Amino acid sequence: MDTASKRALEIFALKIRMGIIEGTYNAKAGHPGGSLSAADVFAYLYEKEMRYDAKNPKWEDRDRFVLSKGHCAPGLYAALANKGFFPVEDLKTLRHIDSYLQGHPNMNTVPGIDMSTGSLGQGVSVAVGMAKAAKYMNKDINVYTLLGDGEIEEGQVWEAMMFANQYKLDNLCVIIDSNGLQIDGACSEVMSAEPIDEKVKAFGFDCIVIDGNDFDELEKAFNAFHNSDKPFAIIMKTVKGKGVSYMENQVGWHGKAPNEEEYNIAMAELNAKMAELEA
Questions:
Q1: HSE, side-chain direction, 13 A CA sphere, residue 212
Q2: Is the pTM higher than 0.85?
Q3: Cis link prior to 111 (omega < 30° from 0)?
Q4: Over the stretch 74-117, which tens digit does the pLDDT of each residue have?
């Protein structure tokens, strides 16, 4: 990847991370950890990978994105806001009682949301249905869905993958954010799904394992998706809480908002990184 493209992605990912901190701090609730670990893939999807029109969110021929791990809505909202789907300032209303930006994505109120999600395991099933519908209608539409590694403990996820293989959905890209932590602790201790790559291959998927916080690796993964003739899985090894020093690899930040002191520390770190990139 050329330097200019990578710099643009890094700046976009930083803006997403700032939006996550802004939203969860003002909500006094939310899920910053898994939102931050996925900030880089949100940036790549909406900067380079997907076809969409922020001025026409319901454009019929757009690619679809389903946030199967719906609790990480703060990251998706920040990406959409920074791409012009709605004002960035509205991120501060996250989870407020009169806000359209609730704790889980709502396709009826939020421009750019293709599916309401939150109950883990269900989003990927909807994404599979979207991919099948695109095939049925002979539409050149790709469908992307993002899951957590805790989420794939749900049996419904594997039923969806079995369906995707049966109907040869090579327009489906399943992205698994493997940050190693879920709400109750380490995935390895709660209910290990390893080896994830061997499991998805056994269900008929092509698969690649990458560093999900590295843009060159993300580019390699999505290129592999486009060159595959099977349903495709990207297993991203990421750092939960990535980009905020005291949140990184700390399970407690799965579903807890920063207080004022923690907010100031996080924003200072992110602003310092932004200054470096813009220098």
A1: 31
A2: yes
A3: no
A4: 999 999 999 999 999 999 999 999 999 999 999 999 999 999 99
Angstrom distance (rounded) from CA 272 to CA 20: 17
pLDDT for position 77: 98
d(CA 243, CA 141): 32
**pLDDT tens digits for range 207-232:** 999 999 999 999 999 999 999 999 99
- Residue 197's Cβ-count burial label (10 Å; 0-12, 13-18, 19+) is middle
Q: Where are the alpha helices (DSSP H) in the chain?
A: 3-27, 32-37, 39-44, 73-82, 122-136, 155-166, 187-190, 196-202, 215-226, 260-278
CB of 40 closer than 8 Å to CB of 13: yes
Count Cβ atoms below 10 Å from residue 48 Cβ, excluding itself: 16
| Rounded (to 5) percent helix, strand, coil in the chain | 50, 10, 40
**Tokens at residue 231, please?**
């349903």
Distance separating alpha carbons of residues 57 and 107, to the nearest angstrom: 11
Amino acid at position 211, single letter? D
124 falls in which pLDDT band (50, 70, 90)?
very high
Computed over every residue of the chain, the mean pLDDT equals: 97
Q: What is the pLDDT of residue 279?
A: 83
Backbone conformation region of residue 118, classed left if phi is above 0, alpha if psi is from -120 to 50, else beta = left
Angle between helices 155-166 and 122-136 (to 10 degrees): 10
Bridge partners of 173, per DSSP, are: 144, 232
Nearest of 65, 29, 17, 49 to residue 174 by alpha carbon? 65
What phi and psi values does residue 41 have, to the nearest 5 degrees?
-75, -35
Report the distance separating Cα 266 and Cα 244, nearest Å.
Answer: 6
